[in-house]
Write a structure and sequence with these properties.
7-stranded mixed β-sheet, about 900 residues, alpha/beta, Rossmann fold, 17 strands
Length: about 900
């Protein structure tokens, strides 16, 4: 049996990138015409950074081998893989390395999106795409104008569309969400770009009119079911009275109380039986054993009828809840079709395509064609495919490349590398079960060649586990092995195999390591405040006593909100921090003042903008004055100019509005004499980038800024001595000396919206529906969908914790919240401390020596200082000549150009110093 289809199931710190890079080199070394055989290999990863890292690694290893040097033990690995001698590997590596450097564009290491884009360009005609379409990477650049187009169709006179949009907004408000309909629609329209939604929306969305017809029918069904529930409650009460049944006849009185007090009441949430009552009925525990025998005998005789009543109630509740959850989002379903049409219209008018749409489009073509046809159209053939981070690959991404991979197995190796435990991008269509089920093709029943492809994958399949941990010290690795051995039992049985090989070998790990887990909070003290204090104390301790620097320490948070909280607190305690999420430009006093000035220049009557500007001046120039009086004064234009004058600010609005956007902002900075800081520098970069791409309109920039206000953040260079703070998602693939994981992940999303097939329900009027998850779905047609979502959500949380706990090299700290009093079922809540509760009940847990000293590696770097730039007006520095003869000699320019060409030709033919005489 061939072993050309290799699956590497890795773990954190197990050398995945190392293995991929060396596999690429080994295949290149063994190829026919080896000097350019690398062109037959395609390595695919998911981010530009990962692709760049792999390219660097391949070139680094080839470069070292070409000089007969061994780094990181690559030579022994390659000798075993290729059966070549060391000299042969050195010789071939030198040839390949030189060839790649001269033909760098042919090095096939790229992101999967780039490869997909290439296929789309090739099949543009088949996909009904224009050959000169523009590619848009940002969904919002398409969504915003499409939403504006949809809203422009609203009529003051009402109509179905207007009424639907109003009700959509009201539903959002009722759910406690935004009341900004434009922003709600923009956020909701993202549904249309999600890969997993395609099967539910393509050709299955109803018009507004059709949705309203369905709504009427569902409302009638809800009313009818309600009446049946009331009738059932009356029937059961009559039965109780007729047979002399009372509260004392039933265990804890729960069955009696439920039908006499709750079923049929105004609050339909009370109709649902408690888990306790359902447990009693399921186990046949109708009464307490202490009851008199005559009571037991009476209940035993009537038990079949009582069970029938309970079954009737559950059936009615299943119907009722199903109708209710669909009705809740009926306006959203109606709106989505209108949004889809608006987006299609905008894209067609502007000849735009969105990159997230590509996988959907090419899936219709490539999965129905033989691979030879695809290769013929692409114009090139790869013999080997290496796919990284396979656990984050979406269904469509894998199925689109599947015909090429299966075809290559007859004459070359393909390799998939992944770690299901690090699958944390399900919200981005990553499908971890696709990886765990290999070599089966997961959810591929609609593929024309599924049987052939699956047979070939099975025939060539071989699995390898990368078990060693080269990153963390021994105590951390062994603690993580114990921790996840216990917590994996929380997962549903059908996905526990994702953690089947989680235990890592620690025999190659360095000795030592420190783990500290502690819980905080009580009825008086907020646990977050206590955790922040503990983190500050611990950072100060290990940087003072244990030889760590600030840059050795990283704090991993569950959300951007928590990142900002930690960044603010550490900064307030004199600890320098680096964080993209926490250092938002919108946090800058100067940036906000600049925006306010731009708003004022745009509209002189903008009182809020004038107040923001005045408050800045009060803090920096007019602190001796009364702020309240200033607030009153700036209400008028005259008063605002008076405040500016007292602060020695001379704002010439008409003159400033003559300037392009970037120069305008530079002028404002000079006029207000803002002291330069990192925020101001990055704000200028943002303005420049916007102006170069979008133009100099102040109003359009302000509108764009409003949408980006929580996204634009400063980026501090790597190597800065500061504590890094980032989300767990951003930390994936990275390693740090010290990791701290704070809080309890209480800011994670508790509910989610899922799409379900509904074509067999509701008189087959509604093909699909969008429903919001809640416990009531346990009694609905969508029970299985809900349970699957709960299972996968718990896996997401556990995987996120796995990623976080496997980042540290030397020290791991987890600071979370004390357990609540009610711990029933708490271990499955998905909070940070619920996983800790599954592992142990007594805290703190400390493993290793807290006094362990860090052995720092001093890397010498060439550094240079940058002096502060002066805010000079370029018009005062640069003078323009208006006649060519004043600047250069036009008569002899041709002679100089010929001389330059000749010099360039000579230099291009000199490769070594000794060749200079011969060439000249």
């Amino acid at each position: 049996m061939s072993q050309n289809f290799q699956i590497y199931r890795s773990s954190a710190g197990s050398g995945k990138t190392y293995t991929l890079a060396l596999s690429f080199i080994a295949l290149a070394l063994k190829g026919d015409r080896y000097e350019n055989y690398y062109r037959k290999i395609l390595a695919v990863t998911f981010t530009n950074k990962a692709a760049s890292e792999m390219k660097e690694r391949v070139l680094e290893y080839l470069g070292s081998l070409s000089q007969s040097k061994d780094v990181d033990g690559v030579l022994a690995w390659l000798i075993e893989e290729t059966n070549f001698s060391a000299d042969k590997i050195f010789e071939r590596s030198s040839v390949i390395h030189k060839h790649i450097l001269h033909n760098y564009a042919d090095l096939g290491i790229s992101t999967i999106d780039k490869f997909t884009y290439k296929i789309v360009r090739t099949f543009a005609s088949d996909l009904d795409l224009s050959h000169n379409f523009d590619l848009e990477m940002d969904n919002y650049k398409i969504i915003q104008p499409a939403v504006a187009l949809l809203l422009s169709r609203m009529s003051d006179a009402g109509g179905e569309l207007s009424n639907t949009l109003v009700n959509f907004a009201l539903q959002k408000a009722e759910d406690g969400k935004s009341t900004n309909i434009e922003r709600d629609l923009e956020e909701f329209a993202q549904q249309l770009f999600k890969e997993e939604v395609v099967q539910f929306t393509t050709g299955k969305l109803l018009t507004v009119s059709q949705c309203m017809d369905v709504k009427k029918d569902l409302q009638k069904s809800k009313k009818d079911i309600t009446q049946k529930v009331i009738v059932l409650a009356d029937k059961v009460c009559t039965f109780f009275n007729k047979n002399g049944l009372a509260k004392e006849h039933f265990k804890s009185g729960t069955f009696y109380n439920h039908f006499t007090q709750k079923v049929g009441s105004d609050d339909d949430a009370n109709w649902i039986p408690s888990a306790t009552l359902r447990g009693y009925v399921k186990k046949g525990e109708w009464y307490a054993e202490s009851k008199k025998q005559e009571i037991k005998d009476l209940v035993d005789v009537l038990q079949p009828q009582l069970e029938q009543f309970f079954t009737e109630l559950l059936d009615l509740l299943t119907q009722y809840n199903s109708v209710k959850v669909v009705l809740k989002n009926i306006y959203a379903i109606a709106v989505l079709n209108e949004l889809m049409q608006a987006i299609k219209e905008f894209k067609k008018e502007n000849n735009i395509e969105q990159i997230s749409e590509f996988n959907k489009k090419i899936h219709k073509v490539v999965t129905k064609q033989p691979s030879s046809f695809i290769y013929e159209r692409l114009g090139e053939r790869y013999n080997h495919y290496l796919i990284d981070e396979f656990q984050d690959t979406s269904l469509l991404q894998w199925q689109n490349i599947l015909p090429l991979v299966t075809d290559s197995l007859d004459y070359g190796k393909s390799m998939l590398v992944g770690d299901g435990k690090q699958s944390i991008y399900r919200w981005r269509a990553g499908e971890v079960e696709q990886f765990s089920k290999l070599p089966q093709i997961f959810k591929g029943d609609d593929l024309a060649f599924k049987s052939d492809w699956e047979s070939k994958l099975h025939f060539h399949y071989t699995a390898n586990n990368l078990q060693a941990n080269y990153r963390s010290r021994k105590n951390i690795t062994e603690f993580n092995n114990q921790f996840f051995e216990k917590t994996k039992d929380l997962l549903a049985l059908d996905i526990q195999d994702i953690y089947a090989n989680h235990k890592q070998e620690s025999k190659l790990a360095k000795e030592g390591g420190y783990v500290h887990i502690e819980l905080f909070g009580d009825t008086i003290n907020d646990f977050k405040e206590l955790i922040l204090q503990k983190m500050v104390a611990e950072i100060q301790k290990i940087t003072t006593l244990n030889n760590y620097t600030y840059k050795d320490i990283t704090v991993l948070c569950n959300s951007r909100k928590s990142v900002a909280l930690v960044a603010e607190n550490l900064s307030a305690n004199g600890i320098p921090v680096i964080t993209n999420e926490g250092l938002l430009l919108s946090k800058s006093d100067k940036a906000n003042t600049l925006i306010a000035i731009l708003k004022y220049l745009q509209n002189q009557q903008d009182t809020i903008a004038k107040v923001v500007v005045a408050e800045y001046l009060w803090r920096h120039n007019l602190s001796h004055e009364d702020l309240h009086e200033i607030h009153l004064e700036v209400q008028s234009s005259k008063g605002f100019f008076s405040v500016l004058k007292r602060a020695n600010i001379h704002l010439q609005r008409a003159s400033l509005l003559q300037e392009p956007l970037y120069e305008l902002v530079e002028q404002i900075i000079r006029i207000f004499n803002f002291e330069e800081d990192v925020y101001l520098g990055f704000f200028l970069d943002v303005v420049l980038a916007y102006a170069e791409k979008e133009g100099s309109s102040i109003s359009e920039f302000l509108h764009w800024w409003q949408d980006r206000i929580d996204k634009e953040a400063i980026v501090i260079p790597e190597g800065t001595n500061a504590v890094q703070i980032m989300t767990i998602h951003k930390s994936k693939g990275l390693a740090f000396e010290v990791v701290m994981i704070p809080f309890n992940w209480e800011d994670r999303k508790k509910t989610s919206d899922i799409w379900v097939a509904t074509s067999t329900y509701f008189n087959k009027q509604l093909p699909t529906a969008l429903i919001t998850t809640s416990a009531q779905l346990e009694l609905s047609y969508f029970k299985d969908n809900y349970q699957k979502e709960q299972d996968m959500s718990l896996l997401d949380s556990l995987n996120k914790l796995y990623v976080a706990m496997t980042r540290p090299k030397e020290r791991l700290y987890i600071f979370s919240k004390n357990f609540p009093k009610d711990l029933k079922g708490y271990e499955k809540k998905g909070n940070l401390n619920s996983f800790l509760y599954k592992y142990a009940s007594e805290f703190p847990i400390i493993v290793g020596d807290s006094e362990m000293m860090h052995q720092s590696k001093n890397k010498l770097k060439n550094t240079f200082s940058i002096t502060k730039r002066k805010k000079l007006n370029w018009k005062d520095v640069i003078s323009l000549k208006h006649t060519a003869e004043e600047i250069w000699d036009t008569e002899t320019s041709a002679t100089k150009r010929d001389w330059g060409k000749l010099l360039h030709l000579v230099l291009s033919n000199i490769n070594y110093f000794y060749q200079k005489e011969e060439v000249i």
